[in-house]
Amino acid sequence: YSFAFDAIKLSSAGQAPLAVLLEPLLSEVKNISNEFRQAEQKEVEEIYITGGLANTMGLKEHFAKELNKKTSSPNCFSDIAYPKILEETLRGMGGSFSTAVGVALDGLDSI
Description:
This protein is mainly alpha-helical. Helices cover about 50% and strands about 5% of the residues. The protein contains three helices and two strands. It has a two-stranded parallel sheet. The protein is globular, with a radius of gyration of 17 Å.
């Protein structure tokens, strides 16, 4: 699947733009960042976006602009051995599988 994010464009069904739907999430990230700054006396330096929509075109840029933070989707396969031929495919799928890979790796630590 391929998704594109446009903060201004309305969907074809006339629904609210994605930016409006993301506002509660952005607000919560801002609140958590503020709480972290107060508790730890340091700034959140980077925001990681993971999950199924992590590779939505324009989403990282929107978050970076709204949060004024570096924003990226980490490659969850970076510490896993796999055939070189899969590198491009796995890089593109990383955001979608980050939770599953994290749980699997955590399970390996407990063995």
